[in-house]
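TA notes, week 10

Several of you asked for a full example with nothing omitted. So below is the full record: structure tokens for the whole chain, then the designed sequence directly under it. When grading your own attempts, check the secondary structure regions first.
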């Protein structure tokens, strides 16, 4: 995808407003959203267009994005095939689509220790959120598991942290 300077500026403005407005999950300036959000992003049209196009381009390179990550200069499609079923879903593949032109960059992850998603209720639109997701987040917060981010990003250390505090994996 290659956005014009004006379209790129509109995308960046939408992305920053989404962070300010609390839409999706904001982490280090990126906004993470379930693809179901794209139907209701009328207030952020440039971001929604870029996300839809990135998902289309990602499918062309074999990545079925469940989540999109809106970042500066690129939109990534993130494949979490068991998003609904897993407490902390595992990332299996991604495709980063540059907004200034160029081919999507596809990446796959080691199934033995992939990145895991926490606080999934934040990435889902309100109609999709499940009470169990929020209960799990509160349980994890209560156990202090979000204090050390170096332990929670990948499956193997995450499992160790869960076992240490006696929570189900």
């Amino acid at each position: 995808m290659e956005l014009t300077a004006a379209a790129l500026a509109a995308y960046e403005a939408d992305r920053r407003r989404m962070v300010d407005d609390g839409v999706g999950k904001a982490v280090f300036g990126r906004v993470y959203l379930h693809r179901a959000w794209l139907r209701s992003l009328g207030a952020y049209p440039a971001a929604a267009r870029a996300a839809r196009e990135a998902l289309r381009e990602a499918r062309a390179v074999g990545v079925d994005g469940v989540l999109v990550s809106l970042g500066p200069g690129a939109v990534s499609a993130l494949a979490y095939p068991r998003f609904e079923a897993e407490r902390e879903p595992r990332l299996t593949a991604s495709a980063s689509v540059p907004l200034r032109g160029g081919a999507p960059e596809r990446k796959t992850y080691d199934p033995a220790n992939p990145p895991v998603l926490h606080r999934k209720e934040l990435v889902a639109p309100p109609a999709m959120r499940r009470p169990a997701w929020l209960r799990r987040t509160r349980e994890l917060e209560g156990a202090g598991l979000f204090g050390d981010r170096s332990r929670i990003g990948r499956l193997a250390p995450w499992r160790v942290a869960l076992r240490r505090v006696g929570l189900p994996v």
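Residues 60 and 155 are 28 Å apart (CA to CA). Use that as a sanity check on your answer.
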